[in-house]
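Researcher: I'm preparing a figure for a lab meeting and need a structural model of a single chain. I don't have an experimental structure, so a prediction will have to do for now. The sequence is pasted below. Please return the structure as tokens so I can convert it later.
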Amino acid sequence: MTTPSVPQIFSRQRRFARRARHIALRRADPQAQFLRDHMAAEIVERLDFMRFTPALALVMDDAPDPLAALLAQRGSAIADMPLPDEELPYPRGGFDLIASMAQLDTVNDLPGALIHACAALAPGGLFIACLCGAGSLPALRKILLAADGERPAARIHPQIDNLAASGLMGRAGFSRQVVDSHSLTVRYRSLERMVADLRAQGLTNVLADAPPPLTRDSLARARAAFAAMADSEGRVTETFEILTLTGWR
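Model: Understood. Here is the structure written out token by token.
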């Protein structure tokens, strides 16, 4: 019996290249990482609410500095190990906490990634993941559709919703799993600033079938669409739907 292959929606090569770029950009401008900072605060708030202080924590992020620092302040030891490939078994386990930020929305085998995370936890360990879920980037989606005209290209990643994430958490073997979401809105004065923010935070396209670059005409249409969506102050509101997955082993 052959094992069914996992559809390759995302390019691993492009994903790892984006990761390296994000690490470099974060070092150059730590203040541009508002989404990671927001996710880090969200995870710590949940740990405080549950009164759970992990002895050993693994932070799954390109640049884990903000969350690792907050956890260390609360007395947790932070695992010193390279960022694992989420689609492979972890090189070690026994973690009391595995926290993932903006990683799981671009893995080809999300069920497998959740199974590997559960297996790497110590008994009674906790897994928390924050990612951009269904409904994220609606303004950019409209802008890119206007830019492409009658032949739209796939430029926005497929996005997972609460119901699907909850089912996957159960299949992965987590107990007491909870999946919820909330909106984070950001206002932009220009399309260039919006794109620069996504690039700086490691949120750009890593689809296996890379879309064609925007032409000069399509870029002009994108800017016109942005201007048409702007409010009285010349700003466009973009939305990130932050999906948070929580489960215990």
